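Me: I keep going back and forth on a fold encoding question. No explanation is needed for now; the record alone will do.

Assistant:
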Amino acid sequence: MTWRRVLAIGIVALGMTFVVLPFRISFPFRQEGGVALAGTVRCHGPIRSAFEHGRSEGAWFGYAPNTTNTSVIFNPATGLRPCVTRGRLRLAIGSAGLVAGALLLAFDRRRLQVTGAT
């Protein structure tokens, strides 16, 4: 097995992992009174988060007093859907890794066939 093939398989595995694993987002937002808070959202894997279209009508808000960390699940009606936007970005990056690794494998295979025929 050539080093190119090992590199290509590693890139494909990294891209696949990036597309499937769940992730967490931290971001600032303002409360109705103008108070700035830091929010944290746990998201599904990018392959699922990128295509979510409001799975629930309600929203849950949790606040821990005397801390700046707030756990929030946003209602899609608010227009704030950090899992969808970040999921699409992560899906694009992971997909690029999958395509790059597949192309490396294809070119390595083709190079082996051409050099093996001579």
Observations:
- The chain has one domain: 3-117.
- The first helix runs from residue 3 to 20.
- Residues 3-117 form one domain.
- The first strand starts at residue 23 and ends at 30.
